[in-house]
Amino acid sequence: MTDDTTRTAYRTCPLCEAACGLELTVTGDRIVSARGDQRHVFSGGFICPKGATLGQLTADPDRLRRPLVRRGDRHEEVGWDEAFEAVEAGLRPILERHGPDAVALYLGNPNVHTMAGGLYVSPLLRAVGSRNIFSASTVDQMPKHVACGYLYGNPLAIPVPDVDRTDLLLVLGANPWESNGSLATAADFPGRLKAIQARGGRFVVVDPRRTRTAEHADEHLFIRPGTDAYLLFGIVHTLFEEGLTDLGRLAGHVTGVEAVRELARAFAPEVVTAACAVPADRIRGLARELAAAPTAAVYGRIGTCTVEFGTLTNWLVDVVNVLTGNLDRPGGAMFPLAAHLRTRPQPGGKGFRVGRWQSRVRGLPEVRGELPVATLADEMETPGDGQVRAFVTVAGNPVLSTPNSGRLDRALGGLEFMVSVDPYLNETTRHADVVLPPSDATRKGHYDFSFLGLAVRNFAAYSPPVLPPDPAEMDECDILARLTLIVTGKGADADPAELHEHMLQEMLQKAASADLRKLVDGDHPAERLLDVALRTGAYGDQFGARPDGLSLARLLANPHGIDLGPLQPRIPEILQTPSGTIELCHPAIAADVSRLSEALPRRRDDLVLVGRRHLRSNNSWMHNVPALVKGRDRCTLHMHPKDAERFALTDGDEAEVMSRAGTVAVRVEVTDKVMPGVVSLPHGWGHGLPGTRMSVAAERPGVNSNVLTDEYATDPLSGNSVLNGIPVEIKALA
Ligand SMILES: Nc1nc2c(c(=O)[nH]1)N[C@H]1C(S)=C(S)[C@@H](COP(=O)(O)OP(=O)(O)OC[C@H]3O[C@@H](n4cnc5c(=O)[nH]c(N)nc54)[C@H](O)[C@@H]3O)O[C@H]1N2
Ligand SMILES: Nc1nc2c(c(=O)[nH]1)N[C@H]1C(S)=C(S)[C@@H](COP(=O)(O)OP(=O)(O)OC[C@H]3O[C@@H](n4cnc5c(=O)[nH]c(N)nc54)[C@H](O)[C@@H]3O)O[C@H]1N2
Ligand code: SF4
Ligand SMILES: [Mo]
């Protein structure tokens, strides 16, 4: 018998960083529609096509609901106990014989979109104790963490542009019209940008492509890929030379200004223009406009991170915000304060450092407890002590997302054991001996541990599960807890409740002195941990001491979220540098500037590849939803008409694209939306490989752009991969 009652449920969308509130219509156990939640305190009804398909995505028939175990070259469904026994049999002997470093872990992007990822990954990592930890962070935002680590002493102190109050926004290498924003949670980012213009302000976009964001901007400047550090240094140079710096209320909280002035001397706009292709007078103009605007913010994203000078570029973004007095002031770039976090009693701390260990093969330094994913294949392929023999992936598809993924794909084939926590049998998990699929978004609660700390306005929201647990499926917190227990030797049949309770006690002890266990609320282990974090957090009820404060119960009673007001200044409290100031010119950063100077005279006439995102994609894993892939082929190579002429190509032709790492054949789309000398291919495609089970994606596979990206190209300070500005050659195919 089926239950056909129809009801409405509210849930934060877990698919991207915008954190929109969804209004779901649920009939029985089916999501029949997803709309924007008009009453949501943050998103106010905004939704994008991905959020609208949450029902189709979670009901995808290709989505795994039962574990799989590999037998020969086929994957077969098994029961949960059998699956965990297979993990124990595969993993334990390798750990015992070869030690923890023989097991590598890769954590993919959706870990920042689930409570399990926010809470249960770190106990697993601690239990394994391997130095071979990798994640999508080193193909994404690691340069931002490193820059902020040195500047503010805390790699998680990331300022966001105060888009709702700014007068001038300079956007570098971000396309929020398609991506909906990143490291700046701002539901309806396009609407917020239009609002800047409506109140008389402006926004300027710097991008080698005329993106949808650029089309709506007051000004768009093309830039040669990988050269934003020159442009920004040109701005810094101008600020000093023309006496335009004004730290405002930050004066007294910043050290190292004079050292930055010295470094900037070599980068006059008239010098850097040849490298970055932005006219010198516009570089000077931008400096003057940023200094003169009542408030202004510089914001950079993927195009400033996945590049040769990623950390320097991200550092310079904040240097400009500091020197124009716009850091930590309304309308500038500000530090959010999330409800599950606390403020600190006083500034100052241990500061930030990297390199506590090095990768075995290439000697690349550890950053934030992990190694660059660009060297993952090296660690698997190179024999010797510490060679990676087993691999654990949680919510990741590195075969499509990481550089020279052709090589990684082959390396995965040579492992002794692999287990993946993932709902799809895809390009990566096809190599797994065991696949453990977590229950889908409708059956898990949601709180954004990552993105509420990056929101352009402080707010809090919790969504309880929309549907009750399905006894045949497994919750992701339980899966990760059971893996942890296997690794620690407690066995495949150990009860995850043991770990859940242990974590709760640990959190209570850290957060409060008294035994408050009996006061903790929540039906699910993640809810109980959240309750403690909220109640002891910045706006918390302090377990009754502040009765109007936040708790899980308060969030449950407010399904449209609770607004916590506009961002507030947080300097100096947020600073954890040893000096307790913003250390504007950390020696590690200053040392890398010579690399930038040396590359200044480099010839820049080769053809280079950049990526692009489309509103209806999300990295590699939503191409199995028919509504998101219908229409014309999106995995094409954008090429400027001048280049097309040069290579004798016309729109629709097939071309071969070659790099140091690999070759793909792809259809060319001739368009002046890319600048001459630059071609663009989206990432996350290249489906339909043998052994995968994503039938819709396989019908329109596209090609994998990361076959072309080079695993030896990394930003030395962060270990981040260079995924934009890859030298390529092109050949027309008959
Ligand atoms: N060339 C190029 N490469 C890039 C980029 C680029 O711009 N250009 N961008 C980079 C960036 S920014 C990122 S973040 C990375 C992403 O890199 P990855 O995180 O490796 O890739 P995703 O495509 O996000 O894969 C997500 C995986 O998680 C699974 N999944 C989905 N939901 C859940 C869940 O709730 N639980 C679990 N356990 N699994 C789930 C999906 O099935 C899929 O296998 O790619 C990077 N790669
Ligand atoms: N629709 C959709 N939304 C997404 C995702 C998705 O795949 N699809 N992925 C999510 C993830 S994981 C992330 S991290 C965010 C990313 O969010 P964004 O950074 O906003 O997204 P991108 O579209 O990659 O924008 C990067 C821009 O940088 C430009 N660029 C490339 N090289 C350079 C350069 O050297 N300098 C400058 N100035 N620009 C350059 C590219 O042309 C591109 O327009 O998006 C998230 N949201
Ligand atoms: S913008 Fe992001 S959070 Fe909002 S509906 Fe779309 S995918 Fe979901
Ligand atoms: Mo990302």
Write a structural description.
The protein is of the alpha/beta class. It is 31% helix and 15% strand. It folds into 5 domains: 1-59, Phosphorylase Kinase, domain 1, CATH 3.30.200; 63-130 and 372-446 and 462-494, Rossmann fold (3-Layer(aba) Sandwich); 142-342 and 570-597, 3-Layer(aba) Sandwich (Dimethylsulfoxide Reductase, domain 2), CATH 3.40.228.10; 496-560, no CATH class; 606-732, Barwin-like endoglucanases. The protein has 25 helices and 27 strands. The strands form 7 sheets. It has a 7-stranded mixed β-sheet, covered by helices on one side. A 7-stranded mixed β-sheet has the order 26-21-25-22-24-23-27. It has a 4-stranded parallel β-sheet with strand order 11-10-9-13, with helices on both faces. The longest helix has 19 residues, at 80-98. Bound molecules: ligand MGD (2 copies), iron/sulfur cluster and molybdenum atom (MO). One ligand MGD binds at residues 16, 109, 140, 172-176, 178-180, 182, 206-209, 211, 223, 225-226, 228, 301-303, 307, 610-615, 617-619, 724-725.
What is the 3D shape? globular
Backbone CA Rg: 25 Å
DSSP strand content = 15-25%
Which CATH-level-2 architecture of the largest domain? 3-Layer(aba) Sandwich
Number of helices: 25
For the sheet with most strands, the description reads: 7 strands, mixed
| Low-confidence parts | none
**Could you say what the CATH topology of the largest domain is called?**
Dimethylsulfoxide Reductase, domain 2
Please give the number of β-strands. Answer: 27
Bound molecules: ligand MGD, iron/sulfur cluster, molybdenum atom
Helix/strand class: alpha/beta
